[in-house]
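Below is how a single chain appears once it has passed through the pipeline. First comes the sequence as given, then the structure the pipeline wrote out for it. We keep one example in the README because the format questions we get most often are answered faster by looking than by reading.
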Amino acid sequence: MIAQLAGALAHKSPEHIIVDVQGVGYQVFVSLNAFYRLPEPGDRVDLLIHTHVREDALQLYGFIDRQEKDLFLLLVSVSGIGPRLALNILSGTPAHELQEALETGDLVRLVATPGIGKKTAERLIVELRDKVKLLKGAREGGDGRRATGVEAEAVSALVNLGYRRNEADRAVKAACAAGATDLERVIRDALKQVRQ
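Resulting structure:
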């Protein structure tokens, strides 16, 4: 799984960018907010990456900072929100504003975001309000943020392997509760849970 890319920005457009890493060009999808913060083509770029595997494609989603990646992972953990929609949501609202809207339950602000209707906004608030508070608390000095990011990555990996989201979510939570903290161990322990 690709988790980070560092190299020259070979191509830059709102649809995607290409990062040249020692002669290999990686196509990466980024939010518009990240796109406007990127350097000019030819300059060096460092991105955090989420690797999304489907039957017919392997896609890379890039983030300039940890906050945007953590929010992306939380968004894709919600049923009905895929990586493209999550990226569209992050394109329409800066990460800190989206986090605040989820935390405070600001339905009006969320519905104003492209790609989010009233029912989706309500579901996002119900499912993510507490998780967003954990992220904020971790950023201010705890360790919950890392666990939340690892948890979301592990759920995504199990879903990509063909397990149902609710089944994957339960198994990952059980693995984390049993003491697993790093991504590889969480996935391994969660796989044991779903295979029982």
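Residues 79 and 165 are 7 Å apart (CA to CA).

See the next section for the split statistics.
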